[in-house]
């Protein structure tokens, strides 16, 4: 059960998130590739830190919308989705090669993540990009993320989120601005899910969410405390 986090989301002299602290806690980093955030120097520094801490690195491609931080939906064709994912992932692989790492996976960011979850045509383009690179796709179980990957023979890794709420149909409720998460509540969600108990949606609906990895976002103010609480819950879970 691997703990992953989205990071490398700074620009120039502006740093966002708690990357250095989180890299001491997590197993897998999803690194921004320049469209919603991250520039060449930020990618280089983030990959170097991940290599230093023995953390695997995947691409975290987003929509070309720095102002909206990739959290505003856009109208795209499947060909455009494929191109933006290939382009961003290609940029990241150059820095991975520099620091002796290989691409671990692809996980879309923000609004792109949600767009692919609900549109099989767009998701086929994204899965094709993952297949071209020969890596798994991180996504949401029970959506087009999973069904398309299964149909196309692409390895799929389902995620559980502890710092975002779920809607009654199991959809993620993406926030435009991050808010603090109660570390104890995050640990409780993980403990319940590992024990086979349902995750509660915002309206109290009980959700069965299969998962092999847990995501903690890096840009919430108390992200390291949340990640530490989740790590402790994983450590105390029955084998």
Cα-based radius of gyration, to the nearest Å? 16 Å
Q: What name does the CATH topology carry?
A: TIM Barrel
Helix-strand string: EHEHEHEHHEHEEEHEEEH
Structure classification: alpha/beta
Q: For the report, how would you describe the main beta sheet?
A: 7 strands, parallel
Strand order of the largest sheet: 4-3-2-1-11-6-5
Distance linking N and C termini:
11 Å
| Number of extended strands | 11
Tell me, rounded to a whole number, the average pLDDT.
94
Number of helices: 8
CATH superfamily: Glycoside hydrolase/deacetylase
User: Which regions contain 5 or more consecutive residues with pLDDT less than 50?
Assistant: none
Q: Provide the β-strand percentage band.
A: 15-25%
Supply the CATH class.
Alpha Beta
Notable traits:
two-stranded antiparallel ribbon, alpha/beta, 7-stranded parallel β-sheet, globular, TIM Barrel, 8 helices, about 240 residues
Question: If you had to describe this structure to a student in words, what would you say it looks like?
Answer:
- The protein is an alpha/beta fold.
- It has a single domain, classed as Alpha-Beta Barrel (TIM Barrel).
- Helices cover 40% and strands 17% of the residues.
- The protein is built from 8 helices and 11 strands.
- A 7-stranded parallel β-sheet has the order 4-3-2-1-11-6-5.
- A hairpin with a 5-residue loop joins strand 9 and strand 10.
- Helix 3 (78-98) runs parallel beside helix 5, helix 5 crosses helix 6 and helix 7 (183-194) packs parallel to helix 8 (223-236).
- The protein is globular.
């Amino acid at each position: 059960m691997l703990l992953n986090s989205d990071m490398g989301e700074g620009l120039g002299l502006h740093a966002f998130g708690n990357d250095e602290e989180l890299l001491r806690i997590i197993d897998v980093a999803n690194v921004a590739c320049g469209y919603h955030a991250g520039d060449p120097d930020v990618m280089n520094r983030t990959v170097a830190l991940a290599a230093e801490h023995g953390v695997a690195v995947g691409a975290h491609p987003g929509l070309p919308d720095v102002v909206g931080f990739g959290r505003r939906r856009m109208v795209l064709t499947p060909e455009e989705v494929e191109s933006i994912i290939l382009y961003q992932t290609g940029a990241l692989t150059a820095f991975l090669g520099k620091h002796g790492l290989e691409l671990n996976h692809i996980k879309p960011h923000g609004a792109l993540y949600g767009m692919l979850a609900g549109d099989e045509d767009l998701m086929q383009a994204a899965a094709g990009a993952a297949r071209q690179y020969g890596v798994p796709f991180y996504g949401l179980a029970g959506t087009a993320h999973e069904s398309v990957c299964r149909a196309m023979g692409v390895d799929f890794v389902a995620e559980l989120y502890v710092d975002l709420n779920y809607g009654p149909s199991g959809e993620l409720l993406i926030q435009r601005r991050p808010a603090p998460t109660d570390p104890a509540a995050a640990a409780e969600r993980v403990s319940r899910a590992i024990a086979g108990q349902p995750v509660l949606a915002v309206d109290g609906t009980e959700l069965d969410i299969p998962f092999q990895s847990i995501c903690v976002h890096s840009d919430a103010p108390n992200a390291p405390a949340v990640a530490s609480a989740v790590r402790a819950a994983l450590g105390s879970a029955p084998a």
